[in-house]
Predict the 3D structure of the following.
Amino acid sequence: MTNPPLLRHDQTLFRDIDVFDPTYLPLHLAHRDAQTRELAYLIDPALRGGTPGNAILRGPPGTGKTTTVRTVFAEVEKATGKVVPVYINCRQNHTLLAVYRCIAGHLLGYTPRSRHLDDIREGIAARLVETGAILLVCLDDANYLVAADTYNILLYQLLRLYERWDVRGAGVFAVTSDLRLNLYTEADGPVRSVFHPHEVTFLPYATTEIREILGERVQQGLYPGVVPRGVLDLIARMTADAGDIRVGIDLVRGAAIRAEGEGRRRVTRGDVTAASSVLGSPVLAARAAALSEGERALLYRIAEQSLSGG
Ligand SMILES: Nc1ncnc2c1ncn2[C@@H]1O[C@H](COP(=O)(O)OP(=O)(O)O)[C@@H](O)[C@H]1O
Ligand SMILES: [Mg+2]
């Protein structure tokens, strides 16, 4: 077999490298119909002027939680001004001030200069009263709020907006990838009296689902023929083993960068292996952090046995 011609130095394998970016919102959200329907069902009352339902979204990293919420929120934003969805990354915003600034920024179109919480909350409420809109807040990676001790106060204030102002309480979708944490039992008594969340579960994607999702990403991001079918199958299997779809996206990107760096027009299995050795440890570390104590103890025992040749 003859080798395919090499790339010229000014040629690239990437049609659009941004589609491999962690914040990229896919054009098509596959295999998350059930979860999308559950969220739509909770939002539905708000579209008719009522109070939206609340949810806890739970599942290991890389199961599409953030993508599903962002897709649903984008649809709501397109469809109506009566419900204002605000997505908050709590890893980056876990103080009360930061969270309220995000909400105000979205609602008002600018971030208030004030550092006084009451002023900012007043501004948010005034806009909701003026427009008659209902707030829908996603607290993504809400475990960071629990760690910062702001989870209960925020939920309390958001769900009981009606106590101080003539507005509906917000709908709250709290999300976590930390399976050791139960976001419902973290809520204290006063919060639980108004927080009756519907639990939406995200299980890891099956290999065939991963294959399909990665196939679409490859089509959007790379030129035709860059990733041969067998190589994509290999990436899908490795991704299923890791249980995190992000691993697959990073592997495709890393392998294509390597092939391009060597002037080749096609990604090989060797590129995938090389990309996985660069990638491996942080992903595995994140997955180990999500294990329960029992699971981790078991993992240590297995590791010890294998080190001692058992
Ligand atoms: N069903 C899907 N279809 C297309 N892309 C997806 C899908 N689920 C996840 N992704 C992609 O995988 C990556 C990780 O998904 P994400 O929603 O951030 O996972 P989680 O929030 O559960 O950790 C994102 O880059 C996203 O674009
Ligand atoms: Mg996420």
